Amino acid sequence: MSGAIEHFGRENRAGGGGDGDAPGSAHLLHFLVRLPRRMEEVWAAVSTAEGLGEWFAAVDVLEPRLDGLIALRGLGSGRVTAWDVDRVAEYTLDDDRAGKLRFHLERDGDTGSVLRFTHEFRGEGGGTEAAWRIRFEDLVAVLERP
């Protein structure tokens, strides 16, 4: 079973009124990723240092609980702002350009799962649709390994 990645767009929200692409404006990226494994198996890929390190970024610190610390190499540090075991992991980083990363898992039949991903950030450094697509392709490849 191969994964499918759907991009649902980018929302620009002006900070303090004005153009959505102005410095300091907020952006939201939304993706839906169909994954070839049950959500219990995918959970480790989005909620552990080892799992995130395989496809996203090296993790220096991750306290797997609400309000736990997280430090992602190259992106910064912050807090775990949502934690529902096997379903939701959300990390809010101190750097507005890295922003908030939310991973929400749902069942997709008996053997698959769906990842609903949202990236909220300010300014232009947060990420692009193409960069996230590559990351999710890496995630699918990791999960397809025997």
Task: Describe this structure in a few short sentences.
With 146 residues, the protein is of the alpha+beta class. The chain has a single domain (4-144), classed as Alpha-D-Glucose-1,6-Bisphosphate, Chain A, domain 4.
The CATH architecture classification is 2-Layer Sandwich
The SSE order reads EEHHEEEEEEH
Q: Which superfamily, in CATH terms, is the homologous superfamily?
A: START domain
Radius of gyration: 15 Å
End-to-end C-alpha gap = 12 Å
Q: Strand-residue fraction?
A: 35-45%
In total, the number of strands is 8
CATH class: Alpha Beta
User: Could you give a short account of the major beta sheet?
Assistant: 8 strands, antiparallel
What does this structure look like?
By secondary structure, the protein is of the alpha+beta class. It has a single domain (4-144), classed as Alpha-D-Glucose-1,6-Bisphosphate, Chain A, domain 4. The protein contains three helices and eight strands. It has helices spanning 39-47, 49-55, 129-144; strands at residues 4-13, 26-35, 59-62, 69-72, 76-84, 88-93, 100-108, 112-122. Helix 1 (39-47) packs across helix 2 (49-55). It starts with a strand and ends with a helix. The longest helix has 16 residues, at 129-144.
